[in-house]
Amino acid sequence: MMSMPMPMSPPYNNQSTMNMDGMAMHMSFFWGKDVVVLFDGWPGTGRLGMYILALATVFVMAVGVEILSMTPRLKQRGISPVVGALIHAAVYAVRMAIAYLIMLSVMSFNIGIFVAVVVGHAVGSFVVKYLALTEVARAVDFQS
Hints:
Structural class: mainly alpha
Helix content: 55-70%
Radius of gyration: 23 Å
Strand order of the largest sheet: 1-2
Number of strands: 4
Number of helices: 3
GO molecular function: copper ion transmembrane transporter activity
Shape: elongated
Order of helices and strands: EEEEHHH
Strand content: 5-15%
InterPro entries: Cop_transporter
Subcellular location: Membrane
Membrane topology: Multi-pass membrane protein
GO cellular component, one term: plasma membrane
Largest sheet: 2 strands, antiparallel
């Protein structure tokens, strides 16, 4: 009985990068300022200021996604249901677009970007919860 020859396995590569079109892409978390976030060439290599700007950008985007999760009370403002639904849909679309950009940023596998996103979500969640609790406290104080 003849057996089929087994295909050769690719050579073992101990590196955590993959080369695509001459650009090295990290395939595991790494720490460093030489990273590509969202757009080719941004923040670039060897530019600490642009890396810090990228960290600040993803931080603000994460805070913004959490703040956009707050649903405004459109019923109390006398807005028609159709207009209210359109406003909610538009806010939701913006929130989802930003959330996907954040996800793509984290897929750079840069630890600094990951930490900035997590801290941004935490700060945004704190702001949202703080605003909700102060609104409840004001309502309770108003009724007393």
